[in-house]
Structures are given as structure tokens and as C-alpha cells.
Amino acid sequence: MKKYLSFFRLRFVMGLQYRAAALAGMVTQFFWGFMELMIFRAFYRADAAAFPMTFSATASYLWLQQAFLALFGAWLLENEIFDTIMNGNIAYELCRPIQVYDMWYARSIAKRLSEATLRCVPILVVAALLPEPYGLAAPASFPHFLMFAITLALGVAVTVAFTMLIYVLTFFVVSPQGLRIFFTSATELLAGAVIPLPFFPEGIRKVIELLPFASMQNVPLRVYSGDLSGVEMGRAVFFQIFWLGALVLMGKLLCRTALRRVTVQGG
Amino acid sequence: MIYGAGKISREVCRVRNDGKVFFHRLKDAARLYWRYMSINIRCMMQYKTSFFLSVIGQFLVSFNVFLGILFMFQRFHRVEGFTYSQVLLCFSIVLLEFALAEMFVRGFDAFSGTVRTGEFDRILVRPRNEILQVLGSKFELTRIGRLLQAVVMFVYGVTASGVRWTVLKALTVLFMLVGGVAVFAGLFIIYVAFCFFTLEGLEFMNVFTDGAREFGKYPIGVYGEKILLFATFVIPYALVQYYPLLYLLDMRKSLVYVFLPLAACLFLIPALLFWRFGVRHYKSSGS
User: Fold this and answer.
1) Does residue B285 lie in a domain region?
2) How far is A80 from chain B, CA to nearest CA, in Å?
3) Of B284, B274, B268, B98, the residue nearest B186 (C-alpha)
4) How many domains does chain B contain in total?
């Protein structure tokens, strides 16, 4: 466990070095959040009755989404890992007394956490200062806030477990490009990054809620404002735990199969 | 270069020669650009799988945006007076503008590397216009994925929103495309001109390029008065999107709206001036 913690720490500290990039990212994200909010405001004005969440809950959803973008962004994959597999450096990793899967998992989590740490606070503060109902509202209640923190952690764990599948599947193909394109754009849509899941048509939403994608950002961002609570919330948490277990198990099995027949490329 | 001479009076001769020289130069530049393009395309076709995957990727990214609009309109029927097919018409034109601009002008995208490594020295010593050379360095055919989707949506938008075509409306669409490409090209040029000072590409500029593509999906009026003012007078997005769209949909009648997109081309002037300013300040940083 200690070795994985140090992998985590290394990657985390490294991520904290890129402060200028974080600043630029923050400006972009703040603008993005604002424009999204304007779109939803226009729809809200057009027909408030058809809105599936309260407007304030939607605003909180959008701001939290921007603040924690680095935690859930599906396209934020580590090129280094792909390179390791592609150019044969995986051979070095295999020499080490560690589990490749666990090491990559620790690194990915660390990278996302470090980037989010740099970016989230200013966005959250500014968003909280915006006037009602456009800003980030206070959490629905203290228990909701606690559940938000728990489901946030679970959501990141599920997201990383899913990206691990992409890395591991790279062992079976020659170029990861196709896999990446397909998985990232599917995740973007189905996780609720394009529009929040409650805005999907009823039938489609019911199916998506069973998929692992709905266990990523969808749960914490909605629990925060109380849009998801009671039995529904319980169900969502159950799905998060289920998918975390299933994805990790799947990833580990695939990883073991891959490593058994791994062909080291390059010379 | 001296062309013709002799019996015609000198004055006339000079005027004609100037015209001829200019025309000759233009033809030459076009030929050179065509060469650059064909090299780029042949180069890309060496990696066919990668090319097709990129095309599909481009398609999927904007397809997600499309689905977002589709789902929103399952629930709401109008936004600020625009219907689903009208919004799609708007989105498709912006996407066309952006895809075309990216296809031809994206050579500027990799430019920060050119400045950092001192590669730009090599461009400066060649006896050709720098912009032409940078433009030619990349031709992004992969944007065809986006273009295809835009064309499909455009056809749907036009038929479903019942635009009554006139010659002027066809011209409006043409002008929108010309003006839109000019605005995005201007933004790309400004983006790279910053590299002369910062050496790094500035990520926040994406707000104005990718952001405009992303949020150009809805008519700019949707975002409220202030954004509309900004998009009219600072960066003229609205001139190539919102105002001419109103004319296409018969919401405005004035002929001014037909020609507004052409006015957006003026945006290229400050962009090019800034680029010149940047080139003057270029200090080679490579070894």
C-alpha cells in the first residue's frame, strides 16, 4: 500500500507545478460555466414548467461541474500510460515488484486530484458570490453535503476505473486512438457533461441510469443541491458501489490476461 | 520582373505592369498554396486508419452537441422565439464556418512550437510571404467529419424551418460563410501572434475559438444583451451568425442584414496588423 501512496504523492506534487496552465484553465472554465448558464436561463424563460430541476439546482450543477472538471473529464487521459504501452517501456514496469493496475490507478487519481485542487477553490468562491439564482447555492442540508463528499469520491473512483479499462484495452490494439475517441465521446454524453441527465428524455434517461456513466459526475452534482435525495439517492449510491466493484474487477482481469500475453513493442 | 515595353506610353505601361505583376504574384501564391495542400494531403493519406479515426472523432464531438440540442428540444419547444429547426440551421452554419476556417487556417495552431524552436527563422529567410508559408504548413482535411455533419444539419434546417429562398438569401448564406471564416481566421491569427511575445500558446484564447463554436450553436441573442453587444462590436460573431439569421428567417427585412457578414471581414485588418507587430518583435529563441 505504501508504494502506491508514494506513486500517488509523486504524481500529485507534479500536478501542482503547472500553475499557469491552471490559471488559464480556470478562466476558460469560468467562461464556459457562465455561457452554459445563459443557455439554461433562456430555456427556463421559454418554459419554466418543463424544467426538470429547480433553476438554482441547475446553476449549482453547472458551477460544480466546472470547478471539478479535472476530476470527471473523460478526455483527461494520461498520455504517458499510452506511450508506455505503445513503445514497450511497459517492460520496465513489469520488472518492478508492483501491480501495474494499482500503480496506474493511484497515478490517475493523483493527477485528477492535483489538477482539481488547483482549480476548484477560485471557481467555487466566485460562483458562490454570484447573485441568486445564478450562483452556487449552499448545499441543501448538512447530510446532503456529507453525501456529496462521499458520492464525489465514489464518482471519481468510478471514472478512473472506467479510464483504466481504456488503458488496459490498449494492450489488445496497436493504436489507442480509436478507443479513445469512441469512449471519451460516449462518456461525455452519457455522464451528463453535455447536458445534465435530468434533461434527457424520460425513456433514454431510465436506460442511462443503469449504466456506469451515470455513476460518475451525475450523482454528486445532483446530491449537493438536493435534486437527488431519499430512496433515489440510495439507489444511486448503490449503483456507484456496484459499478466501482465491477469496473475494477473487469479491469484487473483484463489486465492480468493482457500481461500474460503481452508483446513488448519497440527495441 | 519586367513585362512588355515599347510603343505604349510609359504611364500606361506601368499601370498595366503593376496589374500584371500583381496578378502573376497571386497566381504564383495560389499555385504554391496548392502544392502545400497536396503535400499535406498525401502525407496524411500515408496513415489512413489514423485519418479516418480522426474524421470520426471530429464527427462524434459535434454529434454530442447536436444530441444535446435535440434532447433539450424534446422538452422545450422554443427558445427566445427560435424553434428546433431554426436553431439547427444556426448551428450548422456556425459549424460550417468553423470547420472551413480550421481546415485552412489551422496551420497556425502548431505555431507556438515554431516560435519556440526558432523554426520561424527559416520561414523568414525564404523569399515568400510568411503568412502563406504558415498557412501552407498544415491543411486539416480531418475536419471533413465536422463539415459533413454541418451539411446534413444545414439541409435539414433549411427544409424544416421553411426558409423561402430568394437570390438575396442565398447570397446571405454565402456571405455568412465568407465572413465567418474570416472571423475565425482572424482569431487564429491573433492567437498565434501572441506566441511571439509569450512563446507558449495561450489557452484562454480557446474561449474565443472553440468557445464560439460551442456556444454558436444557439443564436447569440439567447445569451442576453451584453453578450450580444460584445459579439457585435468587439469580436463580430453576431455579424456572421445572429443578424443574418434573422434575415434568413424573415424576422428582419432590411437589406443591411444581407451585407453585415461581409463587414465582419474587417476583423481581419486588426488581426493582420497585430500579426505584423508580432513579426517585428520576433526574437529568435532557437539555437
Assistant:
1) no
2) 19
3) B268
4) 2
